[in-house]
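Problem 3 from the worked examples.
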Amino acid sequence: MKLFGKKTCCSGNYTSEAMAKAENTKSNTGIKILGSGCAKCQALEKAVRIALKELEFDLELEHVTDFAAIASYGVMSTPALVVNGKVVSYGKVLSVEQIKTLLK
């Protein structure tokens, strides 16, 4: 996508096939971090891993960087945390304690 002749950071694969595939993955169980892989996204992922270890939960953790998949969740601000297909937080890095509360 170009805006004023410049490529934006969010230009991605928004074909109907890509969006359908992204919709299908939303029903998967587990935990997902939605974000480009920036420092905040990495900080949230690290906090989630610590929370899972402290709670002794054996849940799958996936970091989603595909913008079509992120858009399918309706998230406009990253990082976002998704638990069992439901967005529980977006736009901020949660503490380990906040994550543990959400997962209990």
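Problem 4, a separate protein:
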Amino acid sequence: MKCIVEQKNIINPLQKINSLLTKNNTNEILGNILIEINNSNILLTGTNTEMELIYKIPNQYNCVSGKITVSGKKILNIFRIISKKSLINIKLIQKKLYIISKKSKFSLLTISEKKFPYFKKQKYKIKFYINQKILKNMLEYIYFSMSSQDVRSYLNGILIDFKKKYIKSVATNGHRMAIFKKKIKKNENFPIFSIILPRKTAIELNKILTHEKILIKILLNKNNIQFHIKNIIFTSKLINNKFPKLDHILIKEKKYKIKINKEILKKSLSHVSILVHEQIKGIYLKFYKNKCTIWSHNQDEQAKYTFPIEYNYLKKIKLSMNINYLLDVLNILKYNFIYLILDKNIQYLQIEVLEKIELKYIILPLYL
């Protein structure tokens, strides 16, 4: 095996693949990247047995075919210190991989490709195409609301739901929820299905996707999903469970609708966060007489911030909630104003923006 590559063409694939590799695993091969060269492409593959990511890089320099696995972390660190414009020689000699560029020369131990845990080839029953930007929006606006290690497996992922009239993605940890729901246009023809993407899959896929308006191919069966994005093939197992129906939580009768400047709200939260309780992370919000007061306390210490808003309701409203849940929403939204929405019973807070009506965020109150 012998090839020449340009640093700028391989550094990004190495970074993306290393992101999903298993760290500190007793099985050393799971920390390795498979390098495979054929007449057309250089293929880089990484897996953690739950996901598999393949990058295709054009074989521009008549590389000699072959395959081997090498430490993903080490080869990435080597390519990071090499100049972006450099041509890099890679050679496999007697089970060692040599990486040579100008004055630098590295030799790395390898593991046979025969030990690499390839994903089994699948038969996919569903095949369709979707605009990459739509799928990116379905993930990036809600993924932070997932749980991480909940015993209820469906909470450790994102629901992807395709219906006849709309597509929807939902993430929740039981205390907050994020929903992206978009009507399907007449010229869009999607199959009807419902799946749960695992947490790690959703995070890694969000990193790979961009806002570029191109069609990507999706293959799907009961247990697996595969995404074809330009020169990338990303395959993942699915969570086999039922996601709870949560549409009834959304506020339909909007009794209170409070318009707030997002940056001012973020500033107030940064002030009170200094003295927020380290474990509970709870803050209070009070709305009255065209004012909003936010405060936190930690034992005998207190922080308070008051600023003007448009609030013409007679009722004084007081809420308590996790400050991080509120900041997560504010940080993902790129608009000047948000709307805090409550029903007559003031059971929980719903956040919306006029510019993106397909988005809704629900935060349940704390009882401090």
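Solution to problem 4. The chain is about 15% helix and 40% strand. The chain has three domains: 2-115, 126-247, 251-363.
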